[in-house]
Amino acid sequence: MKKQDMEYASGNEMAAIAIKQIGYDLMGYYPITPSTQIAENLDMMRADGDTDLVMIAAEGEHSAAGICYGASVAGGRVINATSANGLLYALEQLPVQSGTRYPMVMNVVCRTVSGPLSIKGDHSDIMYLLNTGWPILFASTVQQVYDFNIIALKLAEQVHLPVVVAYDGFFTSHQKGRCFRFAKDEDVKAFVGKKQEPYPFLDLEHPITVGSYMNEPDLMNNRYQMHLAMEQADRVLPKLFTDFGELSGRHYGKVESIGCEDAQKILVLLGSSYDTAMEAVEELRRSHEEEGDKVGTATLHVLRPFPGNELVERIGNAEHILVADRQDSYGAGGGNLSLEVRAALQRYGSKADVKSLIYGLGGKDFFKEDAKTMLSIAGDASWPDFAYYGVTPGVKAEEEGPLFAPVTRERTGIGATKVEKDEAKHLKVTGGNLNAVTAMPGRIAPGHGACPGCGIPVNLNLLLKGIEDPVVFLFQTGCGMIVTTAYPKTSFKVPYLHNLFQNGADTLSGVAEICYRKQQKGELPPGDIVFVMVSGDGGMDIGMGSALGTALRGHRLLIFEYDNGGYMNTGYQLSYSTPLGARSSTSHVGKKQYGKTFFNKDMPKIMAATGIPYVATVAESNPTDFIKKAAKAAHYAKTEGTAYIKAISACPLNWNDKPATERKVIEAAVNCCYFPLYEVEQGVTRLSYDPEKTGKKIPVSDWLSMMGRTKHLQKEEYRNVVDRMQKEIDARYRAIKKSAEEV
Amino acid sequence: MEHIKDNRWGLQKKLTSGKEYYEIRLESIGGLGANLCGKMLGELGIKYLDLNSSSFSSYGSEKTGTPVKGFIRYCDKAKEIRVHSPVVEPDLLVVFHQALLKDGIVWKGCGNETAVIVALEPGQALPEGLPGQLYGLKAQQIAMETHSRINVVMMGAVLKLMGLKSVEKGEQICRDTLGKKYPEALENNLQGLRRGYEEVGPLEQNVNSVKAAGEESKGQAREGIWGYETAPMGGINPRPGSTVVSDLSPSRQGYIPLFIQERCINCGLCLSTCPDMVFQFAKGEYKGREMMVNQGLDYYHCKGCLRCVDVCPVNALVRGIESEHPNKQYFLPNQELLRMPAYYEKAGPDGYITSESYLTEKRMEGGEV
């Protein structure tokens, strides 16, 4: 046995430690709760110089999977981590990787698949992987997360298949407890061994082609090879478990169980619930010793290849088996685990009576008492073969009357901001007076849950003050959506739809087109409606393709981006619009890293390149300009095509500054020209405000010094970072000014 | 358990009297550092108390002002901790913010055998009939005096109630956790920890009352109304603007904006900077002109960010200490409401999950730079 140290850590922390110790070459990832901490912890180690892992923050999970695939084809040792819809977004790539037989490891931190959006843990994501040709190890404890990560890579490289290590989101990923790690990285490295490449891709002397175009009968043979590899995985796993047991003193099998030898009733479940079930079984066996009420529980540490034989050996002799699933294969009469357990029992000749329960969806807690209840259900003939456990019918209650009057066209047409064409047919906006616009009824109700001082509602309110027609919203995932629509409440007083943030603009295109069609057919009353897609928290990274597609097609709608400079809804990971040098949870500051290493994305310029009629930037520090641009954008969105407005949006929590003075911070961002205010209307650029002319121009370091996330850049050692940033800002600003002067 | 005394509420007594776990629940709001406090308490168990331990926080927390729960379990070191559910019936309940006691959900599951530590706020009375044995300390004041954080002060108090013979083990875990990252803040935090340990004391309260005083948040009960038979399909929500019944006052951290109407020039800047739609403008007359006039503030939704105070050009909005203004002048509920809601539900900002690696001590309330 090798020397080990005790840690007090969570599953995500232990995964990161294993990854660091193995010495992977590359991690391609995209943050998604609850798996994000793995990348965060590794980034912290990187900043401190503890690992030289190449970390690539992709613009979405699909891209992350692509980065990983490329890196593993090129012979790198590659790791990824994801969850839920992120996993589903990457799904298409997974059979590509297994079908071409490139090993890597991916941690799937299990979370419920949206929608409605929930971040909590269940197994609805991992079950989508059953047919991808990836072996799947399932860790039920924090310790196993570490151990299985080490075993997984060795398995992957032995059978030339990519391997998943799955574990419960939050229950295992976030709960901290006692666990052990090898004291020396070398011991881990020695166990995993050196990577062998049967066909080195980058060997230019012996070039190979990967990813042939293949028809029958060859594809069938290729698939059969994959099947054989999975069978090989089934054969090598026992040896890997044994070898690892000798190294660590922790012995695993494909199946783990207690009490099953003589049990009449057995509860089968996956993940952290098994832990709790063991506790229940021990208690029941203690209390029922004399009565002989024999109970047991079993779990699987391997989902693929499915260890049916081993499982039935353990549980096949019980009279009653209850398989509890934290997901449902809707319409199949059970969750996937229960379907497979039933199939295995039949295949290996067990006569046990089996029931399936669905429990714990969306992270609903699983108490010891629940395990006991389930064991009693196992033998209870009054329960059906398949049921949901823990659902509530609700109470029929009289709905109280509405709290607000409908926000009608008549009410919002307050006449405070007017858009007219002048003699030269140019749009002219008047009004936007801050006193007058206070008459605008709210489309968003108060009582939302944004942090004190949050810029998102401030920006939304300013935008809406300038739009006097009815509004229909689509919000992409992000803080703006989370804080307004926590069930069973909603802040919206106008139609609102959420979609995940790789697809907001496209979804709203669909909404708008049906509205226009219905209006044309007379199925809806005529009258202008402004369709507004709201995105922020990095939604223009993963959602950029959708926004560009929408803009290129020219749907009549308004894309509004609140740029808070990071994925704030998941705890501030870097987005492509995070400033250079800023600290985030995936761009830590340490002796080897100064924060984010690349410039903020110039999204207005990208949008302007699509040729849409209107692009503008706005800031709350110039509120009247903001409101007038909102009115103009709404006009274009109603009449001509796609409009895009971007606001810089304060995040006191993650910018790490004072909520009260956020408007000053925004003003400084404008005055240092990090966030210049301008518009591109019908291809014509106009500067809305020039701090150089008003004598308010400040160096970017003045702005950076106002926020905790960039305060470190004041140090002399980071001067070149600030200089680079100043240069880039000046260049971008000069370019805008130049286009404006050309008019 | 050589470091632990045998005291009625303490860990040793509980663990040797047949209980499998000694369980602590922390009740806090984001920004006070309860998450870190829970982590340190958990780590203390395996590192210095010769116990096994585990800890976790309620997820979706640590946004400034969000209610946060922390759970810590201790047991014999030979035992594996296999329970991953929240602590329902705590042996020790730790309330980081006295105002939280107003909501019954905070002390749910507490009984006669529960010890409760409350961070007292000067001048504020405790609700009557709280269950369990009450202890208290002026944690915020101690934190301010020692330039430490309330989480270490509360941790000191917890160690005392757990029955630790001295605060020394707590100092060690603070050194381990904070010493490396924030060496400059360590001494102050140790000072806060010691004073928390020393200054926590019993409060005058009836030990025997287990009857729930106050009431659980009505909103919590209300959430149960929508089940699979009654909820609209697909998670659709047909109640426009229903967040208006959220009372966000718990997310304030001691300060509110005060309105001095005679100074107000009705410029509308306050409304333009307020994230929480607090300002109530209506048609009126100012200096003989018909215009929109600021009528007052809906303090139900004010989170105390004080953006309005910062932008007001004429000091018509000034910072006030909330406890000095129990009856808020110009308190005007949202004027767009067709009727007053049947209830207001105490709420904090909604959390999502955050990332622990970035939850540093520097992310204090108000965002200290």
Word description of this protein:
The complex is a heterodimer of chains A (743) and B (369). In chain A, helix 6 (142-159) packs across helix 8 (218-248). Chain A has an 8-stranded mixed sheet with strand order 19-18-20-21-25-24-26-27, sandwiched between helices. Chain A has a 7-stranded mixed sheet with strand order 3-2-4-5-7-6-12, sandwiched between helices. In chain A, strands 9-11-10-13-14-15 form a 6-stranded mixed sheet, sandwiched between helices. Chain A is globular, with a radius of gyration of 29 Å. Chain A has 25 helices and 27 strands. With 743 residues, chain A is α/β, with parallel strands linked by helices. Chain A has 3 domains: 4-198 and 212-248, Thiamin diphosphate (ThDP)-binding fold, Pyr/PP domains (Rossmann fold, 3-Layer(aba) Sandwich), CATH 3.40.50.970; 255-388, Rossmann fold, CATH 3.40.50; 419-741, Thiamin diphosphate (ThDP)-binding fold, Pyr/PP domains (Rossmann fold). With 369 residues, chain B is of the alpha/beta class. Chain B has 2 domains: 11-216 and 354-358, 3-Layer(aba) Sandwich (Pyruvate-ferredoxin Oxidoreductase, domain 3), CATH 3.40.920.10; 249-346, Alpha-Beta Plaits (2-Layer Sandwich). Chain B has a 7-stranded mixed sheet. A two-stranded parallel ribbon of chain B has the order 8-13. A two-stranded antiparallel ribbon of chain B has the order 9-12. In chain B, strand 10 (279-286) and strand 11 form a beta hairpin. Chain B is globular, with a radius of gyration of 23 Å. The model of chain B is unreliable at 206-221 and 350-369 (pLDDT under 50). At the A-B interface, helix 2, strand 8, helix 9, helix 14 and helix 21 of A face helix 2, strand 2, helix 8, strand 10 and helix 9 of B. Strand 8 (176-182) of chain A pairs antiparallel with strand 2 of chain B, so a sheet runs across the interface.
Write a concise keyword list for the protein shown above.
heterodimer, A: 743 residues, alpha/beta, Rossmann fold, eight-stranded mixed beta sheet, seven-stranded mixed beta sheet, B: 369 residues, Pyruvate-ferredoxin Oxidoreductase, domain 3, Alpha-Beta Plaits, 2 domains, two-stranded parallel ribbon, 13 strands, globular, disordered C terminus
